[in-house]
Amino acid sequence: MANPNTSEAIETLAAEIGENIYIDVAKWHLYLQDAHLHTPLAERLYPLLTEDNLSEDRVVQILQSIPVKLGGGKREVPLVDLLPMQCQVNLLDLLEEFQRKM
C-alpha cells in the first residue's frame, strides 16, 4: 500500500496540474482536471521530484508516453502533442515550485 504522505502529495500535485494545465483543441482549453488526465500525470511526474531528477527532457518523455484517446478511442495522440508550448513551460515551472516546497 502506498505511503499516505506520498498519496497526499500526489493528490496535491494532481490538483495543481489539473487547475493550471490544459490541452488545446481547436482553440478550446480543456483543463487536465476536466479531462481526467491530472492524476495519471501527477503519478508519473512525482518520482522525478522525489528523486531530484526533474528536467525538461524527462517531463517531455512522460508527456509523450501518455496517450489521449480521441473520437471515442478511434485515435490516440500523445499528451505532449495537445499541450501548447506555454503550458509545457508552465508545467515545468509548477513542478519546480512544488519540488521547492517539498
Molecular structure report:
- By secondary structure, the protein is an alpha+beta fold.
- It has helices spanning 4-20, 38-50, 56-65, 79-82, 85-101, and strands at 22-25, 28-31, 67-70, 75-78.
- Strands 1-2 form a two-stranded antiparallel sheet. Strands 3-4 form a two-stranded antiparallel sheet.
- Helix 1 (4-20) packs across helix 2, helix 1 packs antiparallel against helix 5 and helix 2 packs antiparallel against helix 3.
- 21% of the residues are buried.
- The model has no long low-confidence stretch (mean pLDDT 95).
Question: How would you summarize what this structure contains?
Answer:
With 102 residues, this protein is α+β, with helices and mostly antiparallel strands.
